[in-house]
Structure to design on (208 residues):
């Protein structure tokens, strides 16, 4: 994968969007130029069964029409069923060697890392990119860790200059430059786009 694909990495599920149609938000974000999309349908009120799969397919179809990689959070079986462009897993999810074996060498595999040990494992098992955070306090994940700032992000960028890094957690239009200056190739955002009054302008600001 190319580093620039992480520039504006939009993460969304139906539970992240209030009072509006999630697919409309995704369409606006794609049209404005997001560079990667992660389907993350988790938490209270998340879709299940056929509704879950159908929503994922709708998101995937829109991503394909814009040529934007469609990444599935955690659910490897769904990613394989839909022939998604890749998966993103956390440290509590499936082990990286297993993920890579199931997905194959031609798919994108991303992993969240929070320590140098986890970073070394990601390098060893040839992750395509790592997600580092939460950089700032976030309300998008009920089980989010305490904000870590950019110290580890900077260390990771220095240790693995060839490994693409996306920063996540509490990132807004007003603070996204900080993780980029610390070495991130891009920022992953949920609320900043889902709750924006002008999705197109928000995405454009991130791209600038």
């Amino acid at each position: 994968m190319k580093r620039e694909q992480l520039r504006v990495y939009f993460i969304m599920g139906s539970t992240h969007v209030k009072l509006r149609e999630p697919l409309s938000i995704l369409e606006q974000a794609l049209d404005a130029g997001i560079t990667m999309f992660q389907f993350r349908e988790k938490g209270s009120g998340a879709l299940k069964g056929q509704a879950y799969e159908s929503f994922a397919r709708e998101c995937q179809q829109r991503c394909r029409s814009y040529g934007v990689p469609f990444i599935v959070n955690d659910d490897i079986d769904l990613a394989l069923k839909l022939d998604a462009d890749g998966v993103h897993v956390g440290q509590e999810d499936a082990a990286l060697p297993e993920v890579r074996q199931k997905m194959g060498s031609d798919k994108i595999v991303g992993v969240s890392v929070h320590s140098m040990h986890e970073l070394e494992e990601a390098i060893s098992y040839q992750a395509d990119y790592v997600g580092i955070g939460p950089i700032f306090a976030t309300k998008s994940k009920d089980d989010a860790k305490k904000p870590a700032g950019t110290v580890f992000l900077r260390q990771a960028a220095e240790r693995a200059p060839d490994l693409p890094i996306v920063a996540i957690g509490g990132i807004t239009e007003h603070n996204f430059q900080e993780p980029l200056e610390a070495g991130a190739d891009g920022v992953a955002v949920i609320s900043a786009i889902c709750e924006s009054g002008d999705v197109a302008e928000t995405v454009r600001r991130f791209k600038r």
Summary: The longest strand covers residues 108-113. The chain has nine helices and eight strands.
